[in-house]
Design brief:
Bound molecules: zinc ion
Order of helices and strands: HHHHHHHHHHHH
Distance between the termini: 24 Å
Strand content: under 5%
Structural class: mainly alpha
């Protein structure tokens, strides 16, 4: 429950637009997989099905990943690798740990009946499953081979970090990310006034961005 509360605050309070929060999210390369996919699920289940916050965050992170890989492409791997390592823990994980110290009796940690009803759809994740499955024909080919779920896309960031990543692989990864980043941007634009209509390949771009950033375990 504390993690839902914290993720919700990112949506309601627009926290990811706050400069300090954004800097923390840069340092941690976004939220951990559990909470990144959790944030997406909250937006799909409880926020009308438009994952704008997840998309804005990953548009930003993909831009940073492309810039990091452009520099990392030609550096010795130990140096290049450091550009992709998180130097901060996931914000939501931090919050959950802090809330745990307060104990379940804390009203900030234990939800009331109204909150329980409001988050009830989260139990089934029906919309999230449908949304992800609808674009599977596009994103499934882009999955990381190292994640063991099929696909012949670029190795995800966690698997790339396990190295060694030869320059040829880094170059190919950069090309894939350079192709992905504008697709995430287009999906973000589709959620704005007079933006283009979202297509399955646009939705797939967000799935691919989450998959590359933290690994492909959750959608599998
Ligand atoms: Zn986390
Ligand atoms: Zn992987």
């Amino acid at each position: 429950m504390p993690e839902l509360r914290q993720l919700w605050s990112m949506l309601e309070g627009g926290a990811i637009m706050v400069v300090e929060v954004r800097h923390d999210l840069w340092r941690s390369w976004g939220l951990c997989p559990r909470h990144a996919w959790g944030l997406l699920a909250i937006e799909l289940e409880l926020r009308g099905g438009s994952p704008l916050t997840s998309t804005v965050l990953h548009e930003d992170l993909m831009g940073r990943a492309v810039r990091a890989m452009r520099i990392a492409r030609t550096q010795p791997w130990p140096l290049a690798r450091r550009r992709l390592v998180a130097t901060r823990r996931c914000l939501t994980c931090d919050f959950v740990e802090l809330a745990g110290r307060h104990g379940p009796a804390d009203p900030l940690v234990e939800p009331g009946p109204a909150q329980r009803t409001a988050i009830a759809p989260m139990a089934e994740l029906a919309r999230t499953r449908t949304w992800i499955a609808a674009a599977a024909a596009v994103w499934s080919a882009a999955r990381c081979p190292g994640c063991g779920v099929g696909g012949d896309g670029p190795r995800c960031r966690p698997h790339l970090l396990q190295g060694p990543a030869p320059r040829g692989e880094r170059h190919r990864t950069l090309e894939r990310l350079e192709a992905l980043a504008p697709r995430v941007t287009r999906y973000g634009r589709s959620m704005t006034w007079r933006g283009p209509t979202a297509r399955p390949e646009d939705r797939a771009a967000l799935v691919e961005a989450l998959g590359w950033m933290g690994g492909w375990g959750p959608p599998a």
